[in-house]
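**Fold tokens**
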Amino acid sequence: MPRPTLVQKNRRRTALGVNQRFAVGHWGVIEPLGELHVKHRFALSAALAAAALSLAACAPSQTDGASPSPEPSAGAIAAVEPNAALEAMNWIDNGDGVAPDLEATTPVDFTGSGARLISDGDGELIAAGQMLALDYVIKSGADGTTLYSTYDTGSTEQVLYITGQIDPVIETVLDGAHVGTDFLYAVPDQGEGANIMMVTVAGASDVLDRAEGTAVAPVEGLPEVTLADDGAPSVTYPSTDLPDGLIAQDLITGDGPVVEDGQSVTVHYTGWVWNGDQFDSSWDRGAPSTFTLTAGGLIDGWVQGLVGKTVGSQVLLVVPSELGYGDEGSGDAIPGGATLVFVVDILAAN
């Protein structure tokens, strides 16, 4: 697995991306994730979910030409072909908003990853490039117990569906599928135990490629932002003193919905220390990131600065240390007392 980068603080994000992106970072999305402006907040259930999804990202998918499974060690469970195992399982629907149950013979392990379509939804057609809202339950392949459930949290996970960056077996299930689709996903034992994911695509929404809207004239005394052809920003600092307090200045004002507290936002962004080096950039990673705008989950400067903005906007954030990482800083990249600068493209909010 790729090492996490700098924008999540003390928190690993999985390949499908458990918030920060079932990341997407779920199902085998391969991106170097992790961000510094996300503060440490990791409950046991979330850790279990991340472990399962990390396995999904690293596990080999099942194909017609799959290599033979390795010889099981003494006392180990013999791995079985995943799709055949999934066909023998029974999805029990308990109604809208209620976690489904799974009838399955355990213990079980798989020779690779696999997916089985349970039912196609009756909503809009799902398309690559959309943000998917997922409800899911992770079941232990050892004994069938529930390891994690979004139904317990009361909110879906947001996953950016990028072709070629998720497990091909999931792409096959989603090809031609509609919102409301249910499917099973088998993840082989990669040291943390085999798992079965029960996934419902609860929603799908389009995501912008970059900020778009009405350009706003530069404000004197703030960093000057220059955009590359692909939209990636760079900054030039003014010779004036640091501005006072939090600055959340539109560079482009989008005409999309207003971003609300508690929503998941999908963004492209780059972060710098004022008059210093860049420490993180989703542009450099080649894919946007998704965060939940809640106090305690992100640095306060992000929550206060982005709530109330509109989708499509490009926002210059100048974050004083008391709304960032304070006197402690964060690792070698962000010293104590540092003022931070971000340029953020708001691509979607859910």
Notes: The domain at 214-349 is CATH 3.10.50.40 (Chitinase A; domain 3). The chain is about 10% helix and 30% strand. Residues 44-58 form the longest helix (15 residues).
